[in-house]
Task: structure prediction
Amino acid sequence: MSVIDTSGPCDVAIIGGGAAGVLAAIGVLRGAQQPLRVLILEPSLPLARGVAYATPYPEHLLNVPAGKMGGFPDKVEDFLEYLLDVQAFPGVDRDTLATQFVPRRCFADYLRHRLQQAVEVSPAQLEIRAERVQALDRDAVGFQLTLASGQQLLARRVVLASGNALRPLPARGAGSLPDGKRVEAWDFDAVHGIAGNADVAIVGSGLSMADTVVSLVATGHRGRIHVLSRHALLPLPHAKGPAADYDPEPLLRMDLRQRLHALRQHAVQAAERGIPWQNVMERIRPMGQALWQTLSFDDQRRFLRHVVRYWDVHRHRIAASVHAQLMQLQQQGQLQLHRGRLETAFADGACVQLTAFDKRRHPFQLDVQHVINATGVEMRAQAMRNALLQQLLGSGMARPGPHGMGIDSAADGSLIDADGVVEPRVQVLGSLRIGSLWESLAIPELRVQAAQAATALLG
Ligand SMILES: Cc1cc2nc3c(=O)[nH]c(=O)nc-3n(C[C@H](O)[C@H](O)[C@H](O)COP(=O)(O)OP(=O)(O)OC[C@H]3O[C@@H](n4cnc5c(N)ncnc54)[C@H](O)[C@@H]3O)c2cc1C
Result:
């Protein structure tokens, strides 16, 4: 039996026990050749839920088919294997299950199951502490972590996997709305608790909006559902059909304008052969990071300013069943889509009064019982409401990533500080790397990053 000294510094401290942190822990536990002390710090237990997989509600589905959600780059069908092993969907055969969008909560169960299996055979020891990390500083042995409880810990190496930060509601007055009038879309229980006859306004029209609408439908909501966003584009559905087989490599040598033109051409040609445009997008899915990194800085900026909304609805698609629900609600008039920029949100008796401006700067007003913030993931480092990130930026241990998005990291995931010095003992995972990689949110990217981080940390 291995004897590990738990009084001294831990070997690897993982900050954040969402999907990315847990995948990194599994990688370290599996790769360890000798006794090591691995610590996960996560205030919201049980592990592996983070934002995405914390929902207990069956209507919240994964937006990637089960056959592609495996947590390991060398075993992309591992999630599917797990579902079959535990007989999560008795009577559904393997091929059918591989293409299905199963409830998101299954994924957290899967990750915890694999973590437990890794613990059982590893010479390393895993500790889990329900704590938030407030500060990270360099120290003689490596790093000193200050916890929200005030306690301090030492670690030789660190994984930063603090994940997704919610964007605040972009409206004057929103901060002073009474509790319950302003609801966060990621607060799944609060959305479920909304009275069935209430009129609501959902701000944002992406995946979190879709989550909110399916929850309202599941609770039998009868009130009006206003959806307000600057572009009023709804997420598009996944589609079945033959795979696209064009060569995507030349796209990497084109500028932004040429790429968009070429992609449209591929979609037109594919449609002529009965191939849905969705599969044209699927063809470039594995190249998301390369496509971003081969754009010039100016083209990246143009993309963020002019293209990103259109990109998002084509790239971040939803299950066809969810899309059909949205369309039906819109046709019935229960869901009303508004294009506009939200300006103010003030309480007015039992109502919330929202003021927005349309494209021509004409004001319009929505009176509802609840406003739901579905504006999604905060990408700007300086705006992320996470004390640890603000401390890292303030102390110079980290600097904002390209275009101010996320924090800067090297190609191997090492943190880059304010002077540009690479710190390989701190590995950064997930949405924090968005400025450098763009595609850095979903499991297909996280599993690669987590495996690389584990290798770097063990090395
Ligand atoms: C609503 C939603 C649905 C999604 N659906 C899918 C999907 O179907 N398929 C897919 O591939 N991707 C999906 N994603 C993308 C998703 O971001 C990733 O799959 C994954 O959940 C991200 O995991 P993470 O660990 O990086 O971040 P998170 O899930 O955000 O977890 C980060 C964790 O870090 C903790 N933390 C933060 N700060 C600190 C701190 N200072 N100290 C200690 N702990 C801290 C938080 O409590 C949290 O638990 C979805 C995202 C969202 C928001």
